[in-house]
Amino acid sequence: MEHIVIIGNGISGVTAARHIRKLSDKKITIISSETEHFFSRTALMYVYMGHMKFEHLKPYEYWFWKKNRIELQQGFVKTIDVKSKTLHFTEGFTMTYDKLVIATGSKPNKFGWKGEDLNGVQGLYSKQDLENLEIYAPNNKTCRHAVIVGGGLIGIELAEMLNSRNIPVTFLVRESSFWNGVLPQGESEMLNKHIKNHHIDLRLSSNLKEIISDQNGKVKSIIIQETGEEISCDFVGLTTGVSPNIDFIKESEIETKKGVLVNRFLETSIPDIYAIGDCAEQREAIGNRPVIEAVWYTGRMMGETLAQTLCGNKLEYKPGHWFNSAKFFDIEYQTYGWVFPEPKENHAHFHWIHQDDSKCITMEYNTITNEFLGINTFGIRMRHEVFDTWLSEKQTIDYVISHLEAANFDPEFYKHFEKDIQASFKNTLQTI
Amino acid sequence: MNTKLNSSLSLAKPDQDLSTKQKIAVGLGAIGLFILFLAFLNIDFPNRVLFLSAALGLITIGTIVFANSAYLKKTEGIKNDGVWFKSISSRGILGWITGIILTAFYIVLYFYPQYLGLGMDGAANTGLISLFDPLSQLLSGRPASQWFVYGTFYTLAILIFGYKFLLKYRHNRYEQIRTGSVMFFQLAFAFLIPEFMYRLNSGLPYYDLKNIWPLNYYLFDEWSVKSFLSNGNIGLALLLFGIASIFIITPILTYKYGKRWYCSWVCGCGGLAETAGDSFRQLSDKSLKAWRLERWLVHTVLVFSVVMTIATVYTYLGYDSNNFWLTRGVFISLAIAFLSLVFLLTMIFKRDALGKDAKYGAIGYFITIALLLILYFTGTTHEVFFINSGNLRSAYGFYIGSIFSGVVGTGFYPIFGNRVWCRFGCPMAAILGFQQRLLSKFRITTNGGQCISCGNCSTYCEMGIDVRAYAQKGENIVRSSCVGCGICSAVCPRGVLKLENDSMKGRINPTEILLGNDVDLMDLINQK
């Protein structure tokens, strides 16, 4: 029986395993050094905030793995011997495979800051990070002040987490406005205010210079590059993005760049070895997508696709229309299609913001063809399926605006804003 | 939600431990409870009106002040911070103490009302119950009973914790309107109207119009039916309304809106669970085992209640059609015909939708019908399964009506969650759920591929449904037990869940590949 070994029990590896089991009778082993069972990484924040216990993060009960004959192996792969198809573990044992799937995810970025390896300095990615957070920032007695470096999705989540335990937070953001490398200005500015309303000390256009240690090797303070200001703190969160977690592969014959290089079939340079999820790097970008996509959904989609290939139905990885979501404190965000921080050439933005500053949308469209290209929506839930269809049908912006109600996904009895948005759209056109 | 920048805010949010204001609020509530406790110890207050008002007033004010302080200063949004750190809401010592006190209260209430001060054999009330005499006199012109005291507590709990819930979910209009609805139905239909009805026509039995058979298992008892019938047109109308409620009104509303129209909008048990029980919703068991137990238990109770009711009615009907058209023979034939019809229609039109559950349903139905046949053909007027129907009726009242719905159902809130009764025991929920699963426009829609499997929905589902199991597959949630409280949708951080009434077609949509992947793959997998 063919033995498929998957390194990594995150969403990519587990999705692949589940689908391989549905399609075949192959022997499946998942390896992890992090946890025994698959858990939802994106929900680690809710454990720290007390919304859930770690147990609640596991989407499958323990019997699931046995029932589906998915073997779980705890261990850390040290090297891969591609010739003999053997994995060597740091624990000393080995394992052979017929097909290998690398799904090792990411690790937090560090940029060589002085003091970045001190105690109390960490990212937020793994279960171990959560455990360390409980050591260095369990409450506002142990952690009187925290600094977060890096204004992305993890940064704002970490701010919300620390805030839930009443720990004062200074949030250093390199950009002139929160996440404006991704979001258009109106949205980004709305979030700046929202962050400050949650008592976060938001410092825009601020970089970290260095982290200073106390005599015990624990963080004592940080210094801001621009102003030279020293901020004393007991915890520093480094949330300046992630990069593929593939150090153990760099030694092997498998071709890597930033990530494990794969073609559209998710095949690496070595036969019978595949890579999916955050650690995979496409040789050529697919559409507007970055070559490395560290997103929950794309990891899952790669797992779904690769399972087909491994079970005899060779399939290209063809992600559909881009979508994503996040939550910034109390404001939910969804996006469908592409909205760039600045409209691309021959593109324009239509922006609507509610007067209470908690809801807004931005749509990008082509000014020549009027084709609708994408939407960012804040504080109003929208239907994935409807936008996916509209994008496939290449509907015009006018069509989308006038049919917006069909895409609304807010709970029943919620106030609707379509009329307001439509009126605002009309006004914008008239002023152009 | 208004997020206009408020520049007066200091760094770090206001203190999370109990603020001074909250401590005062707890103090006020405790004084109110202490007055009630003194009354329970049989201390006779000189001015009952004053002390009763003070006790209930202080409890109310305490809760309101506490809730205001807990929620009004914070931004609108999900307020589950620290739920699993707090003793009361995570089966800690406070949770256990609360559970034990509640359980003890229910045992005394159901089985030893004299300890609450109920005057036995016509004697005047003493103790706690006597403290409530003035209020009862005001409403219905008679002294209080243990049920009046209980009803007052129950209604007060729904109102004050309903207020707290309204603040907690003030960003969510579905929750606001739904909670307003349960508060209204409890206050008007369960508490005030029956008391006023007694005042207007004291022969009528206590009748909470929204309490539908089989939840209201004594509706068709001989004494109940007799007192309806001996009260002219009003009585007859009420009895007919009771029958129409379960056979006509319920199916129509459940078809249109799902069982939520009742369970989380109208019902008193649901009302208490959604308000006073809200802090315990995360304690429900989500395992597959619990689901299996739930299906067996709730349907067994339903069968029990159907057999018990039929046997009870059967025993007080006559044989002679000259006296009354509904004789034992006619009644039992009607009952068997109705049950067989439901069974046959389900098997003919809905067997595909049932799958494995069909077996359970079938077994339950066969047992019911068989029991009825035995009842009829053995000719033993009072026996089903060789058990006297009176005994059957009192066993049901004792085990289901008192122990299950009261002592376990509410007493164990802080241990097993707030919907133990509704999930494992309520026969009404079983009927509504059966219909919701098979013939209703209601479902919880999942939003394409947006789920991140975080588990907030499953954790906060009071009915123990593993919502995430469906959401992460992009599959709509169509489950008998869902009461449509809407909390899964509220706590979802990615906007994945929406409660909806839409057409029956495509309501159940098992998918293999989620939206987001390329179209060919989705077609390939999902449409085979």
Fill in the keyword field for this structure.
heterodimer; A: 432 residues; FAD/NAD(P)-binding domain; Enolase-like, domain 1; 3 domains; 5-stranded parallel sheet; 10 helices; B: 528 residues; mainly alpha; Alpha-Beta Plaits; two-stranded antiparallel ribbon
Description:
The complex is a heterodimer of chains A (432) and B (528). With 432 residues, chain A is of the alpha/beta class. Chain A has three domains: 3-107 and 243-310, 3-Layer(bba) Sandwich (FAD/NAD(P)-binding domain), CATH 3.50.50; 121-240, FAD/NAD(P)-binding domain; 323-431, 2-Layer Sandwich (Enolase-like, domain 1), CATH 3.30.390.30. Chain A has helices spanning 11-23, 44-48, 63-67, 127-136, 153-164, 185-197, 296-310, 384-392, 397-402, 418-431; strands spanning 3-7, 27-32, 70-74, 77-81, 86-89, 94-96, 99-102, 106-108, 121-122, 146-149, 169-172, 201-203, 208-213, 219-224, 230-232, 235-238, 242-244, 260-262, 273-275, 280-282, 323-328, 331-337, 347-353, 360-366, 372-378. In chain A, strand 1, helix 1 and strand 2 (27-32) form a beta-alpha-beta unit. In chain A, helix 1 (11-23) packs parallel to helix 7 (296-310). The radius of gyration of chain A is 23 Å and the shape is globular. The model of chain A has no long low-confidence stretch (mean pLDDT 96). With 528 residues, chain B is mainly alpha-helical. Chain B folds into three domains: 15-74 and 112-200, no CATH class; 205-440, no CATH class; 441-526, 2-Layer Sandwich (Alpha-Beta Plaits), CATH 3.30.70. Chain B contains 23 helices and four strands. A two-stranded antiparallel ribbon of chain B has the order 1-2. In chain B, strands 3-4 form a two-stranded antiparallel ribbon. In chain B, strand 1 (383-384) and strand 2 (387-388) form a beta hairpin. At the A-B interface, helix 1, helix 6, helix 7, strand 21 and strand 22 of A face helix 7, helix 20, helix 22, strand 4 and helix 23 of B.
